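FYI - complex with adenosine-5'-monophosphate-propyl ester, inputs then prediction.
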Amino acid sequence: MTTYREFHARSIRDKDGFWREQAALVDWKKPFDRVLDYSRPPFANWFVGGTTNLCHNAVDRHLAARGEQNALIYVSTETDQEKNYTFNQLYREVNRFAGILKGLGVGRGDRVLIYMPMIPEAMFAMLACVRIGAIHSVVFGGFASVSLATRIDDAKPKVIVSADAGSRAGKAVPYKALLDEAIALSKCPPGKVVLVNRGLAELPMVAGRDLDYATLRAAHMNDEVPCEWLESSEPSYILYTSGTTGRPKGVQRDTGGYAVALAASMKHIFCGNAGETYFSTSDIGWVVGHSYIVYGPLIAGMATVMYEGTPIRPDGGIWWKIVEQHKVTTMFSSPTAIRVLKKQDPAFLKKYDLSSLRLLFLAGEPLDEPTARWIADGLGKPVVDNYWQTETGWPILAIPRGVEALPSKFGSPGVPCYGYDVKLFSEIDGAEVGADQKGVVGIEGPLPPGCMTTVWDDDERFVKTYWTSVPNRQVYSTFDWGIRDKDGYYFILGRTDDVINVAGHRLGTREIEESISSHPNIAEVAVVGVADQLKGQVAVAFAVVKDASKIATPELKLAHEGEVMKTVDAQLGAVARPARVHFVNVLPKTRSGKLLRRSIQAICEGRDPGDLTTIEDPTALDQIRAAIADR
Ligand code: PRX
């Protein structure tokens, strides 16, 4: 048996041989001529000349062996619905949706924006897009009009697919109304909007633009739409993610590399087998949803559970009930979700038959030891922390148990996954740092298959953002701090940039600042991420107002804080709403005008604010202290 160490070493040393073997896990229409073209670093082309299709690999190729087995198990505790789709049924639905899109003139390379709640039609739409070579861009349903408009303008979709509403804890959450607002703000409005009517909210239709999905579906009932065979490097999708600037980046994914990476990860990391059931509690709007609700499990021939609802409704046992009912073997969730469950009666962990479950994967944010222990002991199953990013599409660090079940260490997501040449670099001079020393987590190019190939429509931004931030090196920066122990296990210590992680949701503090600044009475604002017991981090804002009379009394202050929060809700969505908005007269800045966010954050967390020799007005920090103490 190969040890994992050898397996990983070979993936770096003999990329051609290693990935050629992994590539056999998926179907190719035309075999590739070369495994890798890295003649134009940092742009990597994997499986050059090969043609394939993600939908074929996720759906069509399973029809012969498992057409009558479940492919999609849909459970909504919001609408009390459960619907199962076999691979045959999923195939039919995807063909209908593909027929609809083609009928609307969508073709290879065209963009389709999907702004949908967790309903099966969202998955049909995604698969239909990749089937016909269209590029989907799924926008998380928690984002509101301005976030959505920014993404519409960047992706320039021909068609948008949406619905009347989602539902959260039994309350309808409008989608169409926000979409209409976003389209009104957009400089590139789509030609057509396809709307699924769930009967949850009013659905006013704009004549000539808005189309009813049920009517279209009926008209395309018997459509058979062949897969478009794409060259491996052709884009499959764009997924926007937050960074240091206020403008989100469109992470672009290829087709062949992504299919291979997911198929390989299902085998070596997730240990999932065809015919079994995978349950990821994420949302299709995030990368985990793309890779491990939709594509990964289906490519592996597994049934995938799509769940609409919270972890605690009707009670804290709902997820375990699903595991029992559908014999889930592999589960994927987030540390925050487990911390939410931890507040429930622990008896729920013992109430259902969980014998089918082999592994619970957790990712998206640091996994603290008490949470890891609580769930591992409660379930009596191994918990597998894994660290990655929207950019990479699949784990960078984990314990690839399908190769070798190395021991895990609390607080560490594990060792570098095969294909990733992970190193730690000094932020000062780019020198590699050794064991037990803190550095920036970087990856030597080429990034392995499945990782982002560029920033949508902006190659230069891809190079500049990701490949020039470690000094004197052309390496990919994760923008995370890390440390490695003598056994080669990594520990992630937080972001090096202004990105924060709220309940596993990645948010840019700059985006939130821009939104708050648009409030007419805000002159200046700083937003920082502050440690939170439940959510990992929360956003906290410090704002300077233009007209101080609006915050003259404690009551007025509170009302004003609420107003600012509402602005963020309306523009970016409740997911980005700061937990607190404090008002101050001046913000701590350097003499050259740079906000001292790190110092503000340190004070909020009761730590030393660090080196303040460059601060313009030292009393600004006292104001931050006073503002926090005030409540
Ligand atoms: O800071 C790291 C943190 O989440 C960031 C990526 O977030 P996102 O693009 O939403 O992708 C999530 C994919 C699972 C990382 O830069 N992060 C993610 N996983 C972990 C983590 N931090 C610590 N431990 C993890 N397991």
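Residues 241, 287-288, 363-367, 385-390, 413, 478, 480, 492, 495, 501, 506 surround adenosine-5'-monophosphate-propyl ester (CB under 6 Å). The longest strand covers residues 522-532.
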